[in-house]
Design a protein that fits this description.
alpha+beta, Helix Hairpins, six-stranded mixed beta sheet, 26 helices, membrane, J domain-containing protein
């Protein structure tokens, strides 16, 4: 393009601007996000934490897992400080550059006023040139060059006019585009070094980094599990459809994540040759003489022995085997989740008749049982009360007596404080506080199930082969709501009563209404839903004569369950005013008008309710799609697991099974974000044969023992209606279309058969 120039930065000023802005864009956010900060120690949070010996050891282990944390923080601080120092130097350089290369003003350089004569300009130039000439002691070459250029601009008439008009002695300049790179990049002397740098970065370093990342990524699945490990799981679960729990532990220990060849983080010590055989002698039924590969490999036997030692809570040497145990244990939840996925995929393949044998449901449930066992460090046959701090096998005899049979944590939480303290009378007050803290934070799940056939006229009628949608709603609360004395809910209610008495006392009933509203607002969501269901049954006019249309609609709708108090409430009878003949004509007209208005209102109300239900059905899938697009969170609630070397979050499995045939109907859904409420939809195909079937919706925890729940659903499957192959209306339409096509559009209704034949000819 004419009048444009592309050039590199000769002076380097533009390059300094580029570096200054680029460095500032990096330093400001990195300083805000990456500057190391000391975590604030909240005293209230420390009081809520468990102070048992195992929890204290776990805190030490978590700190030791990050040995380079202090060094990394120091390195980050030095990098950020050095970056700000470089930024300050660049800012100083740019400020000096701006001062030296300010706007060119010849009058200011010659120290003459605007409109000065030529004589004054020459006089000032001679005076300043004697001072600034390079040959003089006080000379300055740059200042003398500016002085000469200013003198030439003011003594030449054309240059002076250009400067006064365009601000430039040379006239209007061409548009120039500067490249913010120094000019030495394109010089011949430096071309070899520049090309070598480009080749090193783009042809060697970048392909190497991408290749290393690709080679590592193709070896792992989406859950960071080795693909070779997944193939091994498929092989063993297909080989053994019904697998016992100890067999599952053997396969888990044979995972290739615990082998040195596949995982560089594995440490092989010379002391293993002595310590591992000694550990094997302490563990019964380890099956170390099994000859199956890779179950007979040394790494597999070692990992299996460490898992058994963890479940038996055997003390290991802290510098050797205990470190290996911590590494093996923290990998297990991800591997067990991969096992569950593999078994569920095999079951789906068996349904599709791609594999001959169907894995048993006990196999996948044994995999699920193994996860809380490893997290808590307990066998399944042990009492779940051992998950509480300071509770050992010696204390279990106080839970089961002639008067009481306490076998679960939920039963223990429902006792009164005096009974709980009497059972744990051998513990000190501080230890008892730790027990109450941990138990109060444990989950209490309200498990609600609803089944229906979506997009059907009768969603509660199940036909053979229909797709049944089971909606599972989970409400998570702390176990403290079960405490037999001074629960959290009771405290809130008492506080609301006290506030209402103070504010609304003497208002004449207004305070009680406010208290009821506050109680309803503070109560959990599931209680509010139950109240709404009860109130729905009371809607509608009480003294209205039902129309025929309304009665037919009410028969098809399911009536909500009402409480005995509501059902036994006396109904107000209509007042008898005599025979209908005794009513006046005006009164009869009024009654007719009232009935017509009420019927219209019922129609409008039913139409509005239908629109609301349709809108809710339309909105629910959209909201679920938005949640899927947002991604699944991995944060829920921290688990009290002092023997697990990392922080563990509460996760759950939800699935539907047939306990009679021992089959799995839906693949397990992994719930990873149950903070307060979670809704899951499970779909399966109804059986082909009409009958009454009972299926079980299962909820299993991957973190706690004894917190599993099951909910039975009964489906009265009826025979599916036959789909009509031929419809008489369709046949009539086809015949009419054929006749119209044969007759043509030009034939009127008055034409004769001869005219039609002539037209066809």
């Amino acid at each position: 393009m004419g009048g444009q120039k592309f050039q590199y930065d000769e002076s380097g000023g533009t390059f300094f601007y580029f570096l200054l802005s680029f460095l500032a864009l990096l330093l400001i956010p990195s300083t805000y996000y990456w500057w190391p900060r000391k975590p604030k120690q909240d005293p209230e949070k420390l009081e809520k934490e468990c102070q048992c010996d195992n929890c204290k050891k776990k805190k030490i282990i978590l700190r030791s897992n990050e040995p380079w944390k202090g060094t990394k923080q120091l390195a980050v601080k030095l990098m950020i400080i050095s970056g700000w120092a470089i930024l300050a130097l660049l800012a100083y350089k740019v400020s000096q550059f701006d001062y030296e290369y300010a706007n060119f003003d010849p009058y200011e350089i010659l120290h003459v006023p605007m409109g000065a004569s030529q004589a004054d300009i020459r006089k000032s130039y001679r005076k300043l040139s004697l001072i600034l000439h390079p040959d003089k002691e006080t000379g300055d070459e740059k200042a003398f060059m500016k002085l000469t250029k200013a003198y030439q601009a003011l003594t030449d008439d054309e240059a002076r006019r250009n400067w006064e008009k365009y601000g430039n002695p040379d006239g209007p300049g061409a548009m120039s585009f500067g490249i913010a790179l120094p000019s030495w990049i394109i010089e011949k002397e430096n071309s070899v070094w520049v090309l070598g740098l480009y080749a090193l970065v783009f042809m060697v370093a970048l392909p190497t980094i991408v290749g290393m990342w690709w080679y590592k990524s193709i070896r792992y699945s989406g859950d960071q599990v080795l693909l070779d490990t997944t193939q091994m799981y498929y092989y063993f679960f297909h080989k053994t459809p019904s697998m016992a729990l100890k067999r599952v532990i053997m396969i888990l220990g044979a995972s290739l994540e615990f082998e040195k060849k596949h995982n560089g983080e594995i440490v092989e010590r010379p002391s293993d040759n002595e310590e591992v055989p000694q550990l094997i002698k302490q563990i019964p039924n380890l099956s170390e003489k099994n000859r199956e590969r890779p179950l007979c490999a040394l790494y597999s036997i070692k990992a299996r022995a460490l898992l058994h030692a963890h479940l038996h809570r055997i003390a290991l040497k802290p510098d050797t085997l205990d470190k290996d145990r911590q590494y093996v244990v923290k990998k297990c939840p991800y591997l067990i989740q991969e096992m569950v996925n593999c078994v569920s995929q095999l079951i789906l393949l068996a349904y599709a008749r791609r594999i001959p044998r169907l894995p048993n449901i006990e196999t996948i449930e044994n995999c699920m049982k193994l996860c809380p066992m490893i997290v808590q460090g307990l066998w399944e046959y042990k009492s779940p009360l051992l998950q509480l701090p300071h509770v050992s096998d010696d204390h279990l005899k106080y839970f089961i007596t002639k008067k009481r049979q306490i076998k679960s944590i939920q039963q223990f939480a429902q006792l009164k404080n005096e009974e709980r303290r009497s059972i744990l009378r051998h513990l000190s007050d501080e230890q008892y506080k730790d027990v109450m803290k941990v138990m109060g934070k444990m989950p209490y799940i309200d498990f609600q199930v609803r089944s229906e056939v979506i997009d059907d006229e009768n969603p509660t009628v199940y036909t053979a082969g229909a797709i049944v949608t089971v909606t599972v709603t989970l409400y998570r609360r702390d176990m403290s709501v079960l405490f037999g004395d001074e629960t959290v809910a009771d405290k809130h209610v008492d506080e609301s009563h006290a506030e209402a008495d103070q504010e609304g006392g003497g208002v004449g009933g207004g305070g009680e209404e406010e208290v009821k509203k506050e109680e309803q607002a503070k109560k959990p969501v599931w209680q509010r839903q139950q109240k709404k269901g009860k109130k729905a049954g009371k809607k509608g006019p009480k003294h209205q004569k039902p129309n025929s249309k309304n009665t037919s609609v009410k028969k098809t709708e399911e009536k909500p369950v009402t409480s005995p108090v509501e059902s036994e409430a006396p109904k107000k009878a209509p007042v008898d005013t005599g025979d209908e003949s005794e009513l006046s004509d005006d009164e009869a007209e009024h009654t007719d008008d009232d009935e017509s208005q009420n019927s219209q209102r019922d129609k409008k109300g039913s139409a509005v309710e239908d629109d609301d239900t349709e809108w809710e059905k339309f909105q629910s899938p959209l909201s679920k799609r938005e949640k899927v697009l947002e991604g699944r969170s991995k944060m829920s609630h921290s688990v009290h697991c002092p023997l697990f070397p990392e922080d563990k979050q509460e996760y759950w499995w939800v699935y539907i099974s047939d306990r009679k045939s021992h089959t799995l109907l839906t693949p397990p859904y992994h719930v990873t974000a149950l903070v307060e409420e979670e809704e899951i939809q499970l779909k399966f195909t109804a059986p082909r044969w009409p009958n009454v079937y009972t299926f079980t919706v299962c909820l299993r925890s991957d973190s706690y023992l004894g917190f599993d729940q099951m909910h039975d659903i009964k489906l009265d499957v009826k025979e599916a209606p036959e789909v009509p192959t031929e419809h008489p209306q369709w046949e009539m339409l086809d015949d009419e279309e054929e006749e119209q096509e044969g007759q043509g559009s030009d034939i009127s209704e008055f034409t004769t058969d001869e005219d039609v034949e002539d037209d066809r000819d």
